[in-house]
Design a protein that fits this description.
The chain is of the alpha+beta class. The protein is built from 16 helices and 15 strands. An 8-stranded antiparallel beta sheet has the order 1-8-7-6-2-3-4-5. It has a 7-stranded mixed beta sheet with strand order 11-10-9-12-13-15-14, sandwiched between helices. It binds S-adenosylmethionine. This is SAM-dependent methyltransferase.
């Protein structure tokens, strides 16, 4: 039965301002014969920020997303602004019920109330927010749809950005007002966008701007990235066509963070070598296939690598171990971690490196011995060492 619209809106207003019981609300659609609302869709969630409970308003129009947090205590005006716009549908989920309001052609409200699904009580209010807050990258970001990112890729981006967040202090505390990030072998730029959105916000909180450059040899993916960045209205997000080995995203300046997600085979080594030469303080690389060392192990009759599948797996381990040692020799503190469950990608290892200063004395000797023992025992020279021959030679000289 239709209800008087102002009464229905007053009910919705009360539900939105009852933050402890609110899970989420969405305003969407357009009332017939009315001016369109400012945004196509607005989602409202309760969030707990450092300075207390807030309502978070996420407005989307096409691929453009804007987010505004308003303290709950002062959110009446923002809620009134929202409800004052001619949305055709309002959907509110609380701890106890789901309320849908549809505005009819005559301007009345068709209200439907249903009990909340099981578990909604736990999902509502700040507890709900704690879960939502754990997401650093919005999986519903329209840009992912524009770029064609599937669920697994979105999860990989979230997991990658989570690793980036753990190293954010090392990325963001540099001198200057501009933070520089580069995504090498960016492909369809899912990570480039996800990282730029998150890091951009983190940089802004510190009064800095972020410039992120995605680099790829493929002109088509770079063109798509550029188009999507322009459509999303994202300042500071740029793309460059070219090889990783020759990339110069910031002439005369070093990137503060170098990222590479699944850059094929030795493209990961190119990314690591580039980062070392730039002297970038933070490097995050989730390698892809490892054919270089695998090829060098071919013909080795040792039982560990006699069978192709074992050789492939062992080559993965040996390659990343040697990459880690090379980076340590060249002044990075390195961890190799599982950044995402293997259900979402079999390539789920990540090299996290933070510039820490060249090793010296017994530590340097130990690292060199570990590197030499492994390469001699398996008769391999990894691509990263070939790319950084002069740098490694200098390290050997320093150890004498
Ligand atoms: C497997 S895709 C991964 C793309 C993206 N990082 C992702 O995770 O969705 C690898 C990308 O690296 C690019 N690539 C491979 N070797 C490269 C090189 N040497 N220089 C620049 N780009 C390279 C390819 O064109 C491709 O787009």
């Amino acid at each position: 039965m239709p209800t008087d619209l102002p009464t229905a809106l007053a009910d919705v207003r009360a539900l939105l301002l009852d933050a402890p019981n609110l899970a989420r609300a969405v305003a969407a659609g357009r009332r017939k014969g009315c001016e369109p609302p400012a945004a196509e869709r607005v989602e409202v969630r309760p969030v707990t920020l450092k300075n207390g409970p807030h309502l978070q308003f996420t407005a989307r129009t096409g691929p453009v997303v804007t987010t505004r947090n308003v303290p709950v205590a002062a959110a009446g005006g923002a809620v009134d602004d929202l409800l004052g716009q001619a949305y055709g549908n309002l959907h509110v989920e609380t701890a106890t019920e789901v309320v849908q309001v549809r505005v009819t052609k005559k301007g009345d409200a068709q209200v439907h109330r249903a009990p909340a699904p099981e578990g909604a009580r736990d999902a509502a209010g700040p507890a709900r927010h704690d879960k939502a807050k754990q997401r650093l990258v919005d999986p519903d970001d329209p840009v992912f749809r524009v770029l064609g990112a599937g669920g697994d890729k979105r999860r990989q981006v979230e997991a990658f950005v989570r690793q980036l967040a753990t190293l954010a202090p090392a990325v963001l505390t540099g001198d200057g007002e501009r933070v520089r990030a580069v995504d090498l072998g960016c492909g369809n730029a899912y990570l480039t966008f996800g990282a730029h959105r998150w890091l951009g916000e983190a940089a802004r909180e510190r009064g800095k701007d972020l410039v992120t450059v995605g680099v790829d040899v493929r002109e088509d993916v770079v063109a798509t990235g550029r188009r999507a960045a322009a459509e999303a209205g994202l300042p500071g997000l740029e793309f460059a066509v070219g090889s990783i080995a020759g990339a110069e995203p910031f002439p005369d300046e070093r990137p503060d963070v170098v990222m590479a997600l699944h850059a094929c085979d030795t493209a990961t080594d190119e990314a690591l070598a580039r980062a070392v030469r730039w002297g970038s303080p933070v490097v995050l690389a989730a390698p892809c296939c490892h054919r270089d060392v695998q090829r060098q192990l071919h013909g080795n009759r040792a039982p560990l690598v006699r069978h192709a599948i074992l050789r492939e797996r062992f080559a993965d381990v040996l390659t990343d171990t040697l990459r880690s040692l090379v980076l340590q020799l060249l002044g990075y503190r390195v961890e190799v971690v599982e950044f995402i469950d293997s259900a979402h990608t079999p390539r789920n290892a990540m090299i996290r490196a933070v510039r820490a200063g060249a090793p010296r004395g017994p530590r340097l000797a130990e690292l060199l011995a570990e590197y030499d023992d492994l390469t001699r025992a398996w008769g391999v020279e990894p691509a990263l060492a070939r790319m950084l021959t002069p740098e490694l030679e200098r390290v050997r000289q320093a150890a004498l």
